[in-house]
Amino acid sequence: MLNDAVSPSGGLTASFSISAERLRCHRARVLRRADTLASMSDTLFERIINREVPADIVHETETTIAFRDINPRATTHVLVVPKTRYRNVAELAAADPGLLADVVNTAAKVAELEGVAEAGYRLTFNTGEDAGQTVFHVHGHLLGGSSLGPEARPPK
After folding, report:
1. Edge-to-edge strands of the sheet including 57-60?
2. Which of 26, 77, 139, 141 is catalytic?
3. Which pTM was predicted?
4. How many Å apart are CA 112 and CA 87, to the nearest integer?
5. Widest CA span of the chain, in angstroms?
């Protein structure tokens, strides 16, 4: 809606007001468009799977690939990725529980290969931006090789 007003200097000014609902709809359209564009382009992980980008591959199966994280957060930090793209672990679990089992089994195998299975390791799936997910192709972070400490705690 266009609102006309007289400024203190006597000139005519105009301002626009948009209802919260219209703004919400606009944001939803923009996000859908972004999702469409993102789904049309390959993620970094798909480029690694297709051998278009180099990676230090630790283990590979018919359905999964595991490679070292280029910015490790632990002594052992390996990403375990299904070769079929799903945005996050919840989407993968709903669409293909068998593939999720393959990812977890690959993580267990990698933990053995890396020598962290017996002492312990953490397998984490970040889901969504608030959780720190930056590549929207589901992947588990296998972390180990030293004491990882307690899980995240709520802020005080």
Report:
1. 57-60, 64-68, 76-82, 140-144, 121-124
2. 139
3. 0.71
4. 27
5. 79
pLDDT in tens, 115-150: 999 999 999 999 999 999 999 999 999 999 988 877
Domain boundaries along the sequence of the chain? 42-144
Whether 139 is catalytic: yes
Give the model confidence (pLDDT) of 6-64 as tens digits. 555 566 555 555 676 776 665 655 555 555 445 546 899 999 999 999 999 999 999 99
The amino acid that residue 108 corresponds to is A
The stretches of 8-146 forming alpha helices (DSSP H) are 20-40, 44-49, 89-95, 97-113
CATH architecture of 42-144: 2-Layer Sandwich (3.30)
User: Residue 95 is encoded by which pair of tokens?
Assistant: 């669409």
Helix, strand, coil fractions of the chain, as percent rounded to 5? 35, 20, 45
User: What is the chain's length?
Assistant: 156
Locate 60 and state its tokens: 């590979």
